Fold this sequence. Notes:
heterodimer; A: 5-stranded antiparallel β-sheet; B: 7-stranded mixed β-sheet; 4-stranded antiparallel β-sheet; 11 strands
Amino acid sequence: TQLLEQSPQFLSIQEGENLTVYCNSSSVFSSLQWYRQEPGEGPVLLVTVVTGGEVKKLKRLTFQFGDARKDSSLHITAAQPGDTGLYLCAGAVSGGYNKLIFGAGTRLAVHP
Amino acid sequence: DTAVSQTPKYLVTQMGNDKSIKCEQNLGHDTMYWYKQDSKKFLKIMFSYNNKELIINETVPNRFSPKSPDKAHLNLHINSLELGDSAVYFCASSLGLEVRDEQFFGPGTRLTVL
């Protein structure tokens, strides 16, 4: 069974701080996706990383895919209250017809 | 304007009842999915359909039966509801079955079984 573990589960920080969220697995995935979910809404895709070692930037968010394609990280620089939400990582199963395995999520609260 | 819509948004029902959740997408996608998100926010795939054909069928009780009348619709019928079925159910769609095909999620249906 393929599993993705996210850490930390909860993160409460002040505006302006930096943070990193981790997504780890013992399995190899063909790609790794990061989603953000607001209360009462469905997850929204932020980024997809495909190649081992790949780094993608989205404004203040930096995503990295591990060399072995088993883990990923999300780094937020100078967090803002608007970054508050549930961050989910999801691994795409190789040959799995776009089947995604989700981590349990990191709930981020950024206080003004 | 809504890309993936679900009805109802909230569903409260008694144990043992049968209920359905409907999903529609206007994105012209070929593939649709049902996910279950439990109280700990763990999101798990249940089913996927591509062009009305069942593709993914995870270990889900037989009480759950998806139906896809056409490419734009994927409904979920649940028989003999149990307390453990309480969760938020999300419908999603993607262009196709390729990993590069982004999945777009609906707003979710919160099911509460009393």
